[in-house]
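Input sequence (288 aa), recorded before submission:
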Amino acid sequence: MTLTESLLHALKAHGARQIFGIPGDFALPYFRIIEESKILPLHTLSHEPGVGFAADAAGRIGGGLGVAAVTYGAGALNMINSVAAAYAEKSPLVVLSGGPGRGESNSGLLLHHQAKTLDSQFQIFREITCDQVRLDDAARAPADIARVLANCLRNSQPVYIEIPRDMVAQPCAAVIAEPPPAVDGEALQACVAEILERIGRASAPVLMVGVEVRRFGLEDKVAELSRRLGLPVVTSFMGRGLLADHGAPLVGTYMGLAGLPEVTRLVEDSDGLFLLGVIISDTNFAVS
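Predicted structure, token format:
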């Protein structure tokens, strides 16, 4: 099995259903393996921002990983906005980028599509992804891939995987997925006890749910929780549409002065506002 095939099998095992991409010279070697292996279907588009947004949307709709495949420099750097949006909105997106071969930095010449240094693209993606790896060692690649994909799902944020073009067909072992993190049962029980105590103490408790509830596939469980606790539920602005078809005691979306007065009063007069999956941002709390 090649390094690219090992990566593709791992993507599929972690919930990817397809790949969106645009080939380019640094990416042609691994694009060829994507097409020939048929491990995941490939949809080619015409503009990199569209690749990023399509992959992000596919992941959100399907509930798995979105995968965007591009070339080095002109491809990946043209996809910055869509990856940054996925980072801000907590969406699990995998960016696959071709890259210069391991020895190409030794010529002393600037490489085409190079910005400042050959490492500039990697450093740029550090700012908008939760984990990054360059697969320049086939022996280490399975563990690196497992770590990066686990972090993508665990954090529900984008990750960046760069494949040097002379590495794509290197022999590589299969990726063994990382086990889920252990749960501290004692800490969990203490947390539950504190929440129940605070709910019991509040005279007007309210549950506000946000977009992370959907990202982590928790809508059914959160709806059941709200029914059992008997709490009125509002969504944040980024969480609008949540729980609409789940039988929860849903009141509406909190939008401050721009929203329904009864929803605004419910939230702002509450002496026990409980946030679940809410991103603490200006738009979610009507101060933008």
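Checked by second reader. The chain has two domains: 3-164, 185-285.
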